[in-house]
Amino acid sequence: MQPSSANRYAIVIIGILFFVFGFVTWLNGTLIPFLKLACQLETDVQAFFVTFAFYMAYFFLAIPSSAILKYTGFKNGMALGLVVMAAGSLLFVPAANSRSFDLFLTGLFVQGMGLALLQTASNPYISIIGPMESAAKRISIMGICNKTAGMLSPIVLGALVLKNASTIEAQVNAAADASAKTLLLDELAQRVINPYIIMSVVLLLLALMIKKSALPEIDVEGQDSDGGTAAAKKSVFQFPHLVLGVLCLFLYVGVEVLAGDAIGAYGRELGMPLDETKYFTTFTLFAMLAGYVVGIIAIPKYISQQNALAVSAVTGIVFSIGVFVTGGYTAITFIALLGLSNALMWPAIFPLAISGLGRFTKTGSALLVMGIAGGAILPLLYTTLKDSGMASNRIAFLLCTLPAYLYILFYAVRGYAAGKTK
User: Fold this and answer.
1) Which of 333, 279, 335 is nearest to 150 (CA)?
2) Cα separation of 105 and 123, whole Å?
3) Can you give the pTM of this predicted structure?
4) Chain mean position to CA 140
5) Is the pLDDT of residue 3 over 50?
6) What's the CA dihedral at 314, 320, 321, 327 to 10 degrees?
7) S-S: 140 plus which of 27, 83, 295, 355, CB 3.0-4.6 Å?
């Protein structure tokens, strides 16, 4: 373990990275309605390929990220991830100029590639940098950085690219001449260029800062050299608590993205105007921020990581049912409150799942990061169910959230200890 002064320095650096994660990740909630309008997409299913492209990058790049980290180490791997994210952000320039939805999706996928590398490095790093029993507390601090940025990003991007959105939407729909409609849409698409150029520059500067920093490296390869349980294992798949944890994290990220990015689509289904729904993601993230504050205060002093996860799952079940049995702004409030339920899930699941992995920590971390693909699948399932007519808006949302929270509750009660010796 590093000296406490080095720990504090590392926490500050990783906190900056988590701020970046949050800002970039939660832009998707604004990009969904923006690209649906600018690229004239017909359904929410098409629009939600924004989250699909972004989060599926984690699935494909997590294991390669683990291999990259074995060569680069944590610090250089984080810097490389930031450079890749900057490249993805720059792809938004030609995408906006051509108003190409496919190119936008490519840029989002490349951003996800960079984030996969960053997440694979930073999450085990912040877990291992101090005592494992207080890892959820440290990750909660990271969560505050992440969700503070996430609260700001839809406000900032919404103000820049969706200013007077309802008016523009009405003008586009009313345009009788194809050339006039094209001009309106081209002008709208151009709004995204400057923000993403600025983002690219900031990401490159952060990469340079990480590269030049004195961030301490951690040797996870030698953690089980004392002959512990992990030393006898031949494969990362011999840890049942990890395998169950990957599915748990998959479902958690799915419901987190539903609560954050799909809240606007849910509001639109209820007939709410775009000028209102474009800010709904901020409400969910505010609730998550409150949850992280609770985690910092309570874990592990008043409640263990696994018990915090169990309580979070139970409240997720209650709020999901609340969305189903209500309507209007009350239902939107319950969706936002799911942010409170989701807040302590990542801080609890990740350290519980990588506990005791020893030399398998980087690979185990990569498998967990692959689970972030849940953010690609569950929102797309929700929109497919409601847009195809297979289920109503309320039923589709319930089918995508309630089973997930029930499984998370199972992991909190029993799954986290599977295969571990008493």
Assistant:
1) 279
2) 26
3) 0.84
4) 14
5) no
6) 150
7) 295
